[in-house]
Amino acid sequence: MKKLLSLLTIITLASQANAQLISWFTWESNPVTKAVAGANGLSVSSYATVGTGGKNGKGLSPGPGSNDINLVLDGANFNVPALDIQLDFRREESQASFLNRGSYFNFGMSGGNLSANFLLTSGSSYTSINSGNVYTIPDDHSFHTYHFRYDNNSGIAKIWVDGTLVYTYTGVAGVPLYWSGAGNVIIGKDTDATGRNLAVFDNMILQVQANALLPVKMLSFSADTKNNFAQLYFTSTEEFSVAAYSIERSPNGINFQTIGSVAARGNYNSINAYQYTDSNYTGGLAYYRIKMLNADGTYTYSALATVNKTVIANAVVSVYPNPASRYAMVKFNNAKAGQYHYTVSTLGGQVLVAATVQLKEGNNLLNIDLSAINVKGALTIYINNAQQNSGASFTIIKN
Fold first, then answer.
1. Any idea what the Cα angle at residue 24 is, between residues 20 and 30, rounded to 5°?
2. Please, are residues 234 and 220 in contact by the beta-carbon 8 Å criterion?
3. What predicted TM-score, i.e. pTM, was given to this entire model?
4. Is 215 helix (H, G, I), strand (E, B) or coil?
């Protein structure tokens, strides 16, 4: 029967094409930390063992004495926007947590009643959701199937018992679970079966809810020149399915080649800041983009960022950020002091900003205010040395 159940479970998992398995336990043999598929447990009570009397064979038992199971799973695997938990449980006590992550999440039994508590993001803070007592778990020493699901796409959480819906929470679509600062996950916290050495858990499936695999959000991407190299900066959030960031460079914005990669940190609810140094940049105009590689082999691209370092008379000049919104920074490294004139114009030649500045010897940083310019798209910044009549053009994109 257990093999038949396992086959049916595999079919069920396969039918949820967009779901991603975290861990699946059937507890047919020791050690109980060993998963049938997905991530194994990190640790467990020294008394916990595979016990007889499972739903269809064996299952997870607290072992002899009154010791909680406390099967610990790596919390990093649970930093996900949506969660689906299904298990078979037999009541032998009044208190038993099925899945617990401290104050961030709990699904289980308290005082003989079924409930769920979870946190949802709300900007930089969170909202706490408490289902209250939704079902009285029968004290019949028989296995029943308990199922919790939160879908971040719809903002809906549901709880089923033996396939019957007993609770629905309807929230705001697109809001993910909140895990910032959360620790590891525990199966069987406060679960000791009142000293009975028999199986109380069986057939536990932990997975990311179908359709919850959202692309990583790229918050910013900019490039600059530093110490004669090109320096790339980018920030992201909602990193769940992304595995790595591939860095690509092009001389013309059309033909790109991969020059390096950065591993993703996998933090979903926080902002991740990255840097990459292109030590092979030799000057002139270069285009960069980030290829976001997902664990399933798919990928998406960021917007383009550029660097453009050139020489105007006695100065090495570069312009950033690109794209720009409120301002453009022009970095000068002057061999000697001099007067420079600059203009910002459309590609059609309409001058939008014009000014003359006196720059000292050494490093100078010029801030060109773009906030009053209503034109969006490609703009040309032309800079020339007034004394030596030497100049260069830089193209930027204004958002």
1. 155
2. yes
3. 0.60
4. coil
